[in-house]
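Design review, sub-item: ligand-bound model
Attendees: FS, YL, KQ
YL presented the inputs for the flavin-adenine dinucleotide complex:
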Amino acid sequence: MIEASTEIVFNKRVAKNTFFMGFRSEPMVNVAKPGQFVMMRVRSSIDPLLRRPFSICGVNGDVLLILYRVVGQGTAILSEKRPGDLIRVLGPLGRGFAFPGKAVQPIMVAGGMGIAPLIFLSLTLARKDQHFLAGYGISAEVVPPDQLGIVGLSPAIATEDGSQGHHGRVTDLLESVLSNAKKIPSAIFTCGPLPMLQAVRRIALGKSIPCQVSLESTMACGVGACQGCAVRKAPRFDGAYAHVCQDGPVFDAEILDWEVM
Amino acid sequence: MDKPDLSVQLGALNLKNPVLTASGTFGYGREFASVMDPGLLGGIVVKGISLKPMVGNPPPRIVETPGGMLNAIGLANVGLEAFLSEKLPWLQKLKVLVIVNIYGHSLDEYGAVAAGLKGVPGVAALEVNISCPNVEQGGMAFGTDPDMAARVTERVLRETDKPVIVKLSPNVTDIRVIARAVEKAGAHAISLINTLTGMTIDIEKRTSKLANGSGGLSGPAIRPVALHMVRQVVQTVRLPVIGIGGIREARDALEFLIAGADAVQVGTANFVNPGASLDIISGIEKFLMEHHIESVKEIIGTLKN
Ligand SMILES: Cc1cc2nc3c(=O)[nH]c(=O)nc-3n(C[C@H](O)[C@H](O)[C@H](O)COP(=O)(O)OP(=O)(O)OC[C@H]3O[C@@H](n4cnc5c(N)ncnc54)[C@H](O)[C@@H]3O)c2cc1C
Ligand SMILES: Cc1cc2nc3c(=O)[nH]c(=O)nc-3n(C[C@H](O)[C@H](O)[C@H](O)COP(=O)(O)O)c2cc1C
Ligand code: FES
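KQ shared the predicted structure:
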């Protein structure tokens, strides 16, 4: 974990309300793992006060990459940063994805900005037999990998309004990949809105495929000091909580209590 | 000019500088250790410890508010036993002053936690969180009633061999009444303030943004309230006082010292800037040098009006 003032190298719009930012930090690049995140201090004033968490979307040389959507004040301020601006970053934080030894046909299922950590994972796994499925609301939100300078990654797209790719949900794509698969895939990795995670987890459970989910929660510290980012563990853990920033953000789906999420 | 003397005295406690980290905002001391050296602190107040482990409230537990945040963590902690076996050994190696924040849901629980920490090496003092609901009295917080506050103080004093700091709740009509009651009960020092109760609503869902309904407000937004209460208490009791509330830079800490606090605690600011407490220590030092003041003790309680 490193806390540093870093230089923004670029910050460009890549889709509707969606920005791709790179900032220079060799020490963070050297230790960053797929699924980990950073806490960014978007401004030094007290408004907004707390840092904002973002998944690491990849690395390029000594530059760490994030992909984010503008949803409120903090992300709006972030979107106005220019190359050369300095920003304080704490990271890399949390536990990333675990790679099963001989992952056969790993499947990545992304919803919206959930694509960010899965891009890093996919590039790191670098398996020819992987499937990358990405769901969006509308085509304007679709993030084309070439906009991120990534070659050789072409996710299957689903949009809910049918304006691009499959008309429907990303979980429809997952069902069809699974029903066409010759071998049972050995892992599903997913990140996105909660209802989507719930659906993916249900499908994975039905086929007995280990499923790793990357979760979000409100965070203050990002390091396990405040206990603010609690998620309930499965009933066999007697109502205990896990902490997204420390025990996650990536969890084995069966550790969690999906009834109370 | 030589470097100024930053040490302060809190009754029997010798602090190498007047800056501590506040309970619940610095974990068990270790969480931020890779990005700042906690050994440089005047002291660490650990997360509130109860007799048994507590899982805490359902999420969402935190929400940001203008210049601050609300939390309803629900005093989640590992419990006394795990604190002693898993958390304290690391802190003991650090050679930093460790204050254990304790709480209970009944007088007996407060007493039992204090007894469990009796004679434990590496625990310099107890800080008693009296903002906790009393289950035997319909959930009213111990700290809102002078009589209950005094009884908790007496009970903890009876069970411990360590200095006892009582941490006051600001959610009262007149904080001087509570301060007087705990002084009379024998407390060695007072710290204040704990969080101010508040809430915030999601207007689309028409639900509180915290699963618990209400939460405790902390951060820069509460600083003027905290400072005023510290001033009131300093003018009321003879005990050493630790000022807490919204401190994020040296100038904030200096306000509390000038108002009469002997030391300060830094809370929410740790989340924003893990190095905040160390920056505050060096900032106080710089201020003293610029003003040719040899010891931080010379500015404590120097408010002129
Ligand atoms: C571990 C982790 C990784 C994340 N990775 C990414 C990422 O790679 N890209 C990305 O765009 N976002 C990511 N997020 C979400 C991101 O942190 C929030 O969108 C951001 O903090 C919102 O800040 P704001 O000030 O713009 O919005 P606020 O003003 O704080 O809130 C505006 C709106 O956004 C919603 N919101 C706020 N925080 C979150 C949150 N944590 N999750 C979902 N909705 C939220 C609020 O409910 C509100 O409706 C991640 C969150 C976590 C916990
Ligand atoms: C997330 C969080 C958890 C806290 N937990 C405790 C606790 O366990 N015991 C306690 O006495 N105070 C607790 N507090 C209160 C702080 O120690 C402090 O009194 C308060 O936050 C005001 O200081 P600040 O504005 O600098 O944060 C907590 C505060 C926060 C924000
Ligand atoms: S965000 Fe503070 S413990 Fe996870």
